[in-house]
Amino acid sequence: MSAFPEGVCFDAILPLVWQPDARWQPFEVARYLDVLADFDVTERAEPISAEQGRLDLQLIWLARLANPILPAPAGVTVGLEFVRWQGGGVSIGERGCLSIAPGEALPHLLALPAEIVAIDAAMATVTARWQLDHPAARDAFERYVFRRHREQIRHDREAKS
């Protein structure tokens, strides 16, 4: 993919689909991303309680039941303001939601509002600007992007050494 328009971003292969008629749920986005952050913690200062472990399992099972089949994974670059993915079939200026499953630990399809700003037919990529106008959802999304950005930097450094 060509140069991405911002620095804080991460590359991934995630299940995703563009949905022109989808509506987003800001409260769901904020809460899901906060819970996903807890699921992504690999080393904990203290062990989780048996009750918390059972609740975590129930959340995972519920997410799998609610989303038995996720869309096909695609290459995506997620930034704070923009997103670029491999795909097509959209028009510049089109508004809708990019529905993505942001975490393997808790498989759930989140609809995030965006507007298509560029299409590169030669590279088969679409670039959109996020339209996250809810403060709590925006904050949770920014924490998610920063966390994934830091993880990618750490993995790149480990791969080089």
Automatic annotation (TrEMBL):
Pfam family, one: tPilZ
Cyclic di-GMP receptor atypical PilZ domain residues: 53-157
Domain of life, source organism: Bacteria
InterPro entries associated with the record: PilZ_atypical
Protein name stated in the entry: Cyclic di-GMP receptor atypical PilZ domain-containing protein
